[in-house]
Specification:
- This protein is about 30% helix and about 25% strand.
- By secondary structure, the chain is α+β, with helices and mostly antiparallel strands.
- The protein has a single domain, classed as 2-Layer Sandwich (YaeB-like fold).
- The N and C termini lie far apart (about 30 Å).
Amino acid sequence: MIRSFKDRRTERFFKGKRIHAFHGFVNQATRRLTILDSAVSLHDLVALRSNRMESLSGDRAGQYSIRINRQWRLCFRWQDDGPHDVEIVDYHP
């Protein structure tokens, strides 16, 4: 279960609100957030190759990302109790 969100925009989207910036990939983002919310371990996410999950480095060291599409990512930190600091980010601004 998702434990926390890094930004209000992602949290509002997860709760069913329409976010203009996300209008082009609503179904994909909803599907990825649902998968993340139901995961009980990182292995659950890695096992689904379509997630294209990656461990990040640099200023995002300690985070993981799941691709929503070519431009947008679902980034988060994994702790023992699940995903934290979940955010949808424009990975190639």
